[in-house]
Amino acid sequence: MSEKAKQAIVSRIFGAYYSILPEPERSEELRAVLRGRLRLEQQDDPKERNPLAVGDRVLYRMESGTHEAIIEERLPRDSFLARSSPYETHVLAANVDRAVAVCSFKDPAFRPGFIDRFLSACETGHVSPHLAFTKTDLLAPETHAFASSLECLELLRDLVDPSAELDPPLEDRNLSAEDYSVLVALNYRRLGYKCYFLNLLTDETDEELDRLRAAVQEGTTLLTGHSGTGKSTLFNRLFGNTAQRTSDVSESTGKGRHTTTNPILMVLPDRPGMVIDTPGIKEWGLAHLDRKTLLESYAELQEAAENCKFRNCKHSEGTRDCAVQAILQGHAPEILFPERQKSLDLMLESLKAPDRVRKGDYIKPTGRLRNKG
Ligand SMILES: Nc1nc2c(ncn2[C@@H]2O[C@H](COP(=O)(O)OP(=O)(O)O)[C@@H](O)[C@H]2O)c(=O)[nH]1
Ligand SMILES: [Mg+2]
Ligand SMILES: [Zn+2]
């Protein structure tokens, strides 16, 4: 073991062993295990499911006389994307530059709560979020008309204005569920998030798709979203079939057949970028965040949090003259969009009573943790 340790990227996790891609070639995967004590030494968060995540940069040596690598050290993370329950934190990936949430307007249904949790996870993990809204072709012609109507524009403005009196009120407007989904989606664009409205089934050239493709050329991009929203279809539209799925270590050993819930890192030939594909994710819990961090992950509250005159303010309910509370209480020139406020209320409630699991919380503890009691 006199050889110098070399650097690699974790590309897949199979419980106790890993696939790693040696740098800088990133061509052939090695099967790797952890040096014995690494698990104990390197966890930032004791609830972390695994000491390593896909995308982690590691130092390794080859075990003499074998083809197995031994991971000796995890290098510091630039960014990470995590979801959590009160019992476990699952770091989906580390060192990602951006994450794309793929959200369909229909089949499966549009879920703004998921988007808001995704955005807060990106914000707190230093990952740049992108929102790909798919299946626009399934929207009714009336909804397409609503999306470009003056009424829609006015709603985007008035729903965040506490002094505006909606006439008629929202309930009396005959907005379909689809219309409302589009309104909610357009609000993310209003907030400055990078949004793409896509019909992935047409071959016609599409400016939105080209924009997204340009955004993912370099660096590492994670794709996520519920099952069936169009992630695989989007992947193929962006990269064709040229992307090389890294060799599947599980097939050669027969183990790890039940690891489909884990993300996979892929290198893109002819391009500098890498893509991390995640399986369909049902829930995105944020139990690893505290209340202040969660509030400050909201783009609409960040400026107020910075300008809040109290140092280290927790923005607690009842704090008089707190700039964040002023927005939440409706005393600021601009308030939260109703659906954003609803998501925030639900997330704050989850943090207050962590043992009561709600819809939207990520609850599934692993067998390992369950056995520990
Ligand atoms: N109508 C419509 N169907 C789509 C669109 N994108 C994907 N689909 C279909 O939705 C289904 C699920 O897509 P898939 O890419 O497998 O979703 P994944 O589970 O997120 O990977 C497939 O039948 C796709 O053909 C779209 O923009 N419009
Ligand atoms: Mg898929
Ligand atoms: Zn404050």
State the name of the first-level CATH class of the largest domain. Alpha Beta
Radius of gyration using CA atoms only: 22 Å
Order of strands across the main sheet: 10-9-8-11-13-12
- Our count of domains comes out at 3
Distinct bound molecules = guanosine-5'-diphosphate, magnesium ion, zinc ion
The 3D shape can be described as globular
CATH superfamily of the largest domain: P-loop containing nucleotide triphosphate hydrolases
How would you spell out the order of helices and strands?
EEEHEEEEEHEHHHEHEHHEEHHHHH
The percent of residues in helical segments reads 25-40%
Total helical segments = 13
Overall pLDDT level:
87
Name given to the CATH architecture of the largest domain: 3-Layer(aba) Sandwich
Describe the fold and architecture.
- With 373 residues, this protein is an alpha/beta fold.
- It folds into 3 domains: 6-76, Beta Barrel (OB fold (Dihydrolipoamide Acetyltransferase, E2P)), CATH 2.40.50; 93-277, P-loop containing nucleotide triphosphate hydrolases (Rossmann fold); 291-367, no CATH class.
- The protein is 30% helix and 20% strand.
- The protein contains 13 helices and 13 strands.
- The chain has helices at residues 38-41, 112-125, 141-147, 150-158, 177-190, 207-215, 231-239, 249-253, 291-296, 299-307, 323-328, 338-352, 367-372; strands at residues 6-14, 17-22, 30-34, 57-62, 68-74, 80-84, 89-94, 98-104, 128-134, 194-197, 220-224, 264-267, 274-277.
- The strands form 3 sheets. The protein has a 6-stranded mixed sheet with strand order 10-9-8-11-13-12, with helices on both faces. A 5-stranded mixed barrel has the order 1-2-3-5-4.
- The protein is globular.
- It starts with 5 loop residues before the first strand and ends with a helix.
- Mean pLDDT is 87; it is low at 244-259 and 363-373.
